[in-house]
């Protein structure tokens, strides 16, 4: 967002843009929920359509002037776009309208910054924000004086400050990546410790606000934060998930996905999302009452492909049947195996069916993946090597025994 926004604004004017043939039925409602999640109050909306973006202002000068009049008459403090703007476009719009501007990327980054609770989550969000900021530094220093240097070259404090900030941001980003690598190694060790033996690993994924964390809490009796808002959960939680008297599995709840999730966040949260990549089964939670559930399923599948988790087996869990009117049931594929379950995390309907479907998958998985000795940790390999070197030959052991006698 533009540097003129020094304090958080309270009233936001929303702008949704359909480009070409791309149209999202829920774009206005989703943007409203995102704005509310950031603590802003929506005060109006403009829905625009363009064949292709205008390079300078995305919407074109005429539409931008119309937007300015609407935003000012609504008493807006900030304008929020539902698309990603380039640094130049955002700067041009803010200058023309004399009002701060946020795009979708900055809005989501801001929500993540406010919601991150764990040390790893805060580091991941800071890294994503710095990566985004590093592409927009030029805006922050346009107020500095540019002085004419020798030989006809321009130079001055503005350019020097930009270079200094780029270097500082680069150093900080390297520190963050190093810290996240250490945390990722710890997470990997914890994951391997949980996976010793033949315990099934299950990961909950889904579009944000599909009821994923509520379902996770019901099944694992955990107390992860769950609320009717976007991105209520950012930090991964792992708990035991009881299936029946004979079996439990390890379940993990991860960050929810959304259309247009900034690539900086996907990159920064890869260590957290590794829980998804290494899972044996994904429970893809879907809001069965949403009119755009098929589009949301597609967006989640796209993110799973981005993090290379699209080859992990998936069981669709259609949640919120108390709102959609569906009945609890297990839907099977052509081979007779469960492919979808209809449940309500709120009322508990269908949860026994879900446990049964996961238990059935676990039985098939165990049959197809017989237990094999786990790979030794590096420190265990070192101990084994030392023991090998100290191991005596039968002749040496006999000589020691004779010496004792």
TrEMBL record:
CDD domains: HflX (cd01878)
Domain called Hflx-type G: residue spans: 200-366
InterPro entries, per database record: G_HFLX_dom, GTP-bd, GTP-bd_M, GTPase_HflX, GTPase_HflX_N, GTPase_HflX_N_sf, P-loop_NTPase
Database matches in Gene3D superfamilies: 6.10.250.2860, GTPase HflX, N-terminal domain (3.40.50.11060), P-loop containing nucleotide triphosphate hydrolases (3.40.50.300)
Keyword Metal-binding listed: yes
Known role: GTPase that associates with the 50S ribosomal subunit and may have a role during protein synthesis or ribosome biogenesis.
The protein's assembly and partners: Monomer. Associates with the 50S ribosomal subunit.
Name by which UniProt lists this protein: GTPase HflX
Lineage summary: Bacteria, Pseudomonadati, Pseudomonadota, Betaproteobacteria, Burkholderiales
The gene coding this protein: hflX
